[in-house]
Amino acid sequence: MDVVTEIVIGRPVAVVAEYAADPSNAPEWYSNIESVKWQTEPPIGTGSRMDFVAHFLGRRLAYTYEIVELVPGRRLVMRTAQGPFPMETTYEWSAVSETATRMTLRNRGEPSGFAAVAVPLMAASMRRANTKDLARLRHVLESR
User: Fold this and answer.
1) What CATH number matches the domain at 2-142, 1.50.10.10, 3.40.50.300, 3.30.530.20, 3.40.50.720?
2) pLDDT for 37-57, tens place per residue?
3) Which DSSP state fits 72?
4) Which terminus of the chain, N or C, has fewer Cβ atoms within 10 Å?
């Protein structure tokens, strides 16, 4: 499964990246994320680990993300260290102008077992959810 979504947000790259890269903000703009608890001390950096609780396709999911790459203001890559199936989430930010940012959100994973059969349904649901979440992120940031 490989789902890519993007949006243009009317705020500078530094503002978008700082807010979106902070896992503590995730429950505010991701509708499916219920909570985030840091395992390591903030701020975020390579090796940081956080426990997430989310709901997706009617199921409660608990998983741990580890930051595997961080280029401040440009790119963030995190992978599940444990959870229902391996997942990698990438955020990328690029300037459209001095006051607008393109944010790209990519989720890649390899479900196994029953989940592998449901990949087309999961990908479509994830694309819809990500599109809504990025719209929420844009609303939150453009309202500030």
Assistant:
1) 3.30.530.20
2) 999 999 999 999 999 999 877
3) T
4) C
